[in-house]
Amino acid sequence: MVWRETGIMDERLRFVVECLAGEETMTQLCGDFGVSRKTGYKWLGRYREFGPEGLHDLPRAPLNHGRATALDLVERIVAAKETHPLWGPKKIMARLKRTAPELLWPSASTAGAILARHGLVYSLSPSSAGTETPASSAASSREAPARAILSISALRVAAAMRCSGASRRISAP
After folding, report:
1. How far apart are CA 158 and CA 173, in angstroms?
2. Sign, Cα dihedral of 108, 111, 117, 118
3. The model's pTM
4. Which pLDDT score, from 0 to 100, does residue 22 have?
5. How many whole angstroms separate alpha carbon 26 and alpha carbon 126?
6. Residues 96, 77: contact at Cβ < 8 Å?
7. Mean pLDDT across the chain, nearest whole number?
8. Residue 53 phi, psi (nearest 5)
9. pLDDT for 73-125, tens place per residue?
10. What angle do CA 20, 60, 28 make, to 5 degrees?
């Protein structure tokens, strides 16, 4: 006997056609197809309402998130960060609350999460020490002359110690 390969949609459509033919009860059909009666009635209802397209699986994600931050507040938080890239979420929220106290602003941690989602947060952790961010590149360009002077003076001190013999020398026995 040759095995016949069928898809999920083909099986669901075959279930609905056999159900509408009325030759077997819903309980028998559901048992033959290996689904619960609740699922069988769901497929039949969707077919009657939407046709064959109703037999596709629906997305399981919620259509809306009840505690999501309003889009206009998110836009204001992101705009404040883009205007002032060195400000953190605490300062941004304090300034926004002061300018519009009538709005229900999210917490500073939520603002930080919003900024992170938009790629506006720069990590200061040691793991990202080699990566340069816009904030760190601006600071490093201002501090470059001071670092150069410090490194030159450190070299002079080291050279003076070598010349005076103050450095520790290891002699062979």
Report:
1. 26
2. negative
3. 0.45
4. 87
5. 64
6. yes
7. 81
8. -65, -25
9. 999 999 999 999 999 999 999 999 999 999 999 999 999 999 999 999 877 66
10. 30
